[in-house]
Structure formats: structure tokens, C-alpha cells
Design goal:
3 strands, 2 helices, 80 residues, alpha+beta, Mth169, Chain: A
């Protein structure tokens, strides 16, 4: 089973990379942009076949290492 973890900064947390991306896009002529935020995506292949067990394992990984729950939100997507 494959897990995709989408990690984004929580609202209110400064995002200098998002601001840099926004500035670069505007510099390239892309108008009408605001509040650009950047995040990260992590893909993990698990030997686990039970969806509930896989989700619990990935949730634990996020809490212990992959995401900073003080500053970041995360969403887990499981794929067969």
C-alpha cells in the first residue's frame, strides 16, 4: 500500500518560500495571485495491507517525525 502525506504550514505561520514563489510568478507576468503557500509531499510504500493499520502507522510517523504539529497541518492519502 502506498501513502501520500501532504504537509502544509498552518494559517498564520510565515511562509517566506511561498512569498518568494509569489514574487517570481508575478515577475513572470502571472497576475491575480495572492497568499501563495508552499508545502511538501512525502510518498511511502508500506508492506501493510490493512487500511486502518496503515493509516495508524503513517499517522504515528507524522506525529513523531514527518510533520511539526505546532506549525504544520498534514493530510494522509492511502492508495492501493
Amino acid at each position: 500500500m502506498k501513502a501520500k502525506i501532504h504537509i502544509t504550514l498552518k494559517p498564520g505561520v510565515l511562509d517566506p518560500q511561498g512569498k518568494a514563489i509569489e514574487g517570481a510568478l508575478k515577475g513572470l507576468g502571472f497576475d491575480g495571485l495572492s497568499n501563495v503557500r508552499q508545502g511538501k509531499e512525502i510518498e511511502i510504500t508500506l508492506a501493510e495491507t490493512d487500511e486502518a493499520a496503515a493509516r495508524a502507522k503513517v499517522e504515528e510517523m507524522c506525529k513523531k517525525l514527518l510533520a511539526n504539529p505546532v506549525m504544520e497541518n498534514y493530510a494522509i492519502e492511502l492508495l492501493a
